[in-house]
Write a structure and sequence with these properties.
Length: 309
């Protein structure tokens, strides 16, 4: 089994910074961020760490300690890149870019360096297409904000070595992540399949005039959404009984949205430039103040849920 001492993060954007921050908690790891462009990775990571300090999760000294373990380079041929034991790729969601980057890295790093891709939706099997040693690549799907959301889905490609999957899983557990293994390379992996089944139905309810967007969100927040972190779907199905669950599905499923395409309402909003927070209007209207509050409240909520602070 390969000893992991140096972790290379490719792409110092939002996810890359968050993931570097996660690994920087471990004093025995060195983190190198490689980006093609000049990015101030330290500023973003410091902002995240300061949120944790302000909530009483970490100390000022721990901020400096974490940052001291992170290096940045724009040189893919540098010694830091060459000596990486494990790579987490976080560049743009463009298949060819990911494939080419891994192919280039394969010519630079050691034969047994482990490759992880943080793709949101793409197939790790396809991402490994240009590699000679495809067995060394797995998906590691972190969730945004990566330094707060515990889940990481470790996704097996058609070629991934079981031993590498297990090693990546254990590495993630060692930095406090809730790592789960997705045994098949399927679109949406595990959690996004469920998340988007819910979003499809939420949009459908609005589209059908059953309720407006705010009401749909409230119906989730004040019912099953509230208990989800404690009682997830399959435990809930067991709690109420598989017989009752069967009867409910037998009656209701045929009435739910089963569209294979994005909804026409969603398409219309996109085409009208109603892009949500980005434009101040999507399914609902948003003021700058509401947008700021929404983002701040999410971080506060996550810190409270995860760190009990
Ligand atoms: N944003 C999310 O919520 C989220 C969640 C899970 C997974 N992801 C995935 O993570 C990846 C990164 O997303 P992000 O939101 O951090 O994007 P981002 O745009 O914030 O960051 C991408 C970074 O990659 C750099 N880059 C671009 N081309 C490069 C190259 N050829 N070599 C090296 N660096 C390069 C850019 O300069 C930028 O700093 C994407 O695949 C995305 O789908 C995103």
């Amino acid at each position: 089994m390969k000893e992991i001492k140096k972790i290379l993060i490719c792409g110092g954007g939002m996810m890359g910074k968050g993931i570097a921050q996660i690994f920087s908690q471990r004093k025995d790891l060195e983190i190198i961020i490689y980006d093609k462009f000049p990015v101030d990775v330290y500023e973003g990571i410091r902002i995240n760490l300061t949120q944790l300090k302000n909530a009483g999760v970490i100390s000022e000294a721990e901020i400096e300690d974490s940052l001291s373990r992170i290096k940045f380079t724009q040189n893919i041929n540098s010694e830091e890149v060459k000596s990486a034991d494990l790579v987490v790729e976080c560049v743009l969601e463009i298949l060819e870019m990911k494939q080419d980057l891994f192919a280039e890295l394969e010519s630079i790093v050691a034969k047994d360096t482990i490759f992880c891709t943080n793709t949101s939706v793409m197939s790790p099997t396809e991402i490994s297409k240009k590699l000679k040693y495809k067995n060394r690549l797995v998906g590691t799907h972190f969730w945004n904000p990566a330094y707060l959301i515990p889940l990481v889905e470790v996704v097996k490609s058609d070629y991934s070595d079981d031993e590498i999957v297990q090693q990546v899983h254990e590495l993630l557990l060692s930095v406090g992540k809730k790592s789960v293994i997705c045994k098949k390379d399927v679109p949406g992996f595990i959690a996004n399949r469920m998340q988007h089944a819910l979003w499809r139905e939420a949009i459908y309810i609005v589209e059908q005039g059953i309720a407006d967007a705010k009401t749909v969100d409230d119906a989730v927040k004040y019912s099953f959404g509230l208990r989800l972190p404690q009682l997830a779907p399959l435990e809930n199905a067991d709690m109420v009984g598989t017989d009752l669950t069967y009867n409910i599905h037998d009656y209701v499923l045929k009435n739910l949205c089963s569209s294979q395409e994005p909804s026409s309402l969603l398409k219309e909003l996109k085409e009208m430039g109603k892009l949500g927070f980005k434009s101040g209007e999507g399914f609902q209207k948003w003021t700058d103040e509401e947008i700021k509050t929404s983002k701040e409240e999410l971080v506060k909520y996550l810190i409270k849920m995860i760190y009990k602070k």
